[in-house]
């Protein structure tokens, strides 16, 4: 099992830099050989992050000096400051007494040997210290209830004993022969390098013989639930704010040559502050992997771009931008834009609104064998304002730019952030650091009447799994 796990991980990770995860797999393999697999844990390859976005990595060795509700004495505070200089830890963490005693002994030894205090920890020492504190251990987290279940994973709401903060526990079942699914390995390897206010934070990883548990920050709902809760009548002010946050997180990914490949409302999480974060990177892929061809079995059908529907395996960041356009339409109208039940029906719905593609709108489409085999009628493009009357002129312009057939002209995430559609949000939003987010003023709409439930029949939303 360990051999398969290591091999499958190595195939999915960008090789442009040394990966800590590889060392940990080697350690697990040694433990397994020595017959200690049942007692082994899987130390986190990422440093534990604070509940608020923007925590710095261990290499930056910085820590905020002020922390409300400290849970330790004056002596412990001093020890906490020392260790914070060497590790990036949540500011409200409760350090175990055993760890503090060990830390005090180390300080006394340093004093006796006249060693410089608070020297940076080595990678191995940092990993051992994290394990001493409680990271990488199942008993550190308490399950509070099930949030959802899929083919490979079950998601639980939980609480961290170290911080008393809520967390989301994604428990991935490990098959005896297959090991960890490649989607889980990709999710871990990508998320550990993505530190942004609009991307969900991976706090910890726990490995046992039967499961691999990913510990994420907890967010109250997703965009689908948000739409349902407001009766599919979202304020257009909120549409704009959520749209900007989505593009901001996606631009951060694309700059690092990472494709999400599964954008949909269920994978956009929202907390009680109105902060939107990209989640579920199981289908994500780093373009730095030396290959030009990818699977076309990606992106949930309703948000899948036409070039992928027609079988292309050579694509780049524009694959995500089509989905962004579909999500903008759905936020503004309360219904999915192209709710097809098959590839052919999905293409048919796209062509009926955007128009059947021709050489001028999609160069090379006339030579696509799959497109020609469907023999679609020649639909003329319809004015999008007829379908999204709540969007203003600039919003329609952005939606049009996102739903272009030609991937070379389809607008990018970075360019979208500077679109005139967002001018009303002010210029300051462009100067935010990656670790900061600004939800501005979300408008909370109170419905005074009940609407029929749209969750039945053909337009039923697809599951998160």
TrEMBL record:
InterPro entries registered for this protein in UniProt: CDK, Kinase-like_dom_sf, Prot_kinase_dom, Protein_kinase_ATP_BS, Ser/Thr_kinase_AS
One Gene Ontology cellular component annotation held by this UniProt entry: nucleus
PROSITE patterns given in the database record: PROTEIN_KINASE_ATP, PROTEIN_KINASE_DOM, PROTEIN_KINASE_ST
Protein kinase domain span: 141-422
Entry's Gene Ontology molecular function annotations: ATP binding; cyclin-dependent protein serine/threonine kinase activity
Enzyme Commission number(s): 2.7.11.22
Residues annotated to bind ATP: 170
Catalytic reaction(s) noted: L-seryl-[protein] + ATP = O-phospho-L-seryl-[protein] + ADP + H(+); L-threonyl-[protein] + ATP = O-phospho-L-threonyl-[protein] + ADP + H(+)
Ranges where the record places region Disordered: 34-69
Polar residues: bias regions: 34-44, 54-63
Gene3D superfamilies per the UniProt record, alphabetical: Phosphorylase Kinase, domain 1, Transferase(Phosphotransferase) domain 1
Highest taxon above the source species: Eukaryota
Record carries keyword ATP-binding: yes
Keyword vocabulary terms for this entry: ATP-binding, Kinase, Nucleotide-binding, Phosphoprotein, Serine/threonine-protein kinase, Transferase
Entry similarity comment: Belongs to the protein kinase superfamily. CMGC Ser/Thr protein kinase family. CDC2/CDKX subfamily.
Record protein name field: cyclin-dependent kinase
UniProt organism field: Salmo trutta
Gene encoding the protein: CDK18
């Amino acid at each position: 099992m360990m051999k398969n796990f290591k091999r499958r991980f190595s195939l999915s990770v960008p090789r442009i830099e040394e990966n800590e995860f590889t060392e940990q797999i080697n350690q697990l393999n040694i433990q397994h050989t020595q017959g200690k697999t049942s007692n082994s844990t899987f130390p986190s390859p990422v440093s534990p992050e604070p509940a608020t976005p923007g925590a710095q990595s261990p290499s930056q060795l910085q820590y905020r000096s002020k922390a409300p509700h400290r849970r330790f004495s004056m002596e412990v505070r001093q020890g906490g400051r020392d260790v914070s200089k060497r590790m990036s830890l949540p500011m409200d963490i409760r350090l175990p007494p055993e760890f503090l005693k060990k830390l005090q002994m180390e300080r006394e030894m340093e004093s006796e040997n006249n060693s410089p205090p608070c020297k940076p920890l080595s990678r191995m020492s940092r990993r051992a210290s994290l394990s001493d504190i409680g990271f990488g251990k199942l008993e550190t987290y308490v399950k509070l209830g099930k949030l959802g279940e899929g083919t490979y994973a079950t998601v639980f709401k939980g609480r961290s004993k170290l911080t008393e903060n809520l967390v989301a526990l994604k428990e991935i079942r490990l098959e005896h022969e297959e090991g960890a699914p490649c989607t889980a390995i990709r999710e871990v390897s990508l998320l550990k390098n993505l530190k942004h206010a609009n991307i969900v934070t991976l706090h910890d990883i726990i490995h046992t013989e039967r499961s691999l548990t990913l510990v994420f920050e907890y967010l109250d709902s997703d965009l689908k639930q948000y739409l349902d809760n407001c009766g599919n009548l979202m304020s257009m002010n909120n549409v704009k704010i959520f749209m900007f946050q989505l593009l901001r997180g996606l631009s951060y990914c694309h700059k690092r040559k990472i494709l999400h490949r599964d954008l949909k409302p269920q994978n956009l999480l929202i907390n009680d502050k109105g902060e939107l974060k990209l989640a579920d990177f199981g289908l994500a892929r780093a373009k730095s992997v030396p290959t030009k061809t990818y699977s076309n079995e990606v992106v949930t059908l309703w948000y899948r771009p036409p070039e992928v529907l027609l079988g292309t395996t050579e694509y780049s960041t524009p694959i995500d931008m089509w989905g962004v356009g579909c999500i903008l339409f759905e936020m503004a109208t309360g219904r999915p834009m192209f709710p097809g039940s098959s590839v052919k029906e999905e293409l048919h719905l796209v062509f009926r609104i955007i128009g059947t593609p021709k050489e001028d709108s999609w160069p090379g489409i006339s030579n696509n064998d799959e497109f020609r085999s469907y023999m679609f009628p020649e639909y003329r493009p319809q004015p999008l304002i007829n379908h999204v009357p709540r969007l203003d002129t600039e919003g329609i312009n952005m939606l049009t730019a996102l739903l272009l057939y030609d991937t070379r002209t389809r607008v990018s995430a970075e360019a979208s952030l500077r679109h005139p559609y967002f001018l009303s949000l002010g210029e300051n939003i462009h100067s935010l650091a990656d670790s900061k987010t600004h939800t501005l003023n979300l408008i909370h709409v109170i419905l005074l009447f009940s609407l029929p439930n749209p969750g039945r029949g053909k337009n039923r939303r697809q599951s998160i799994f």
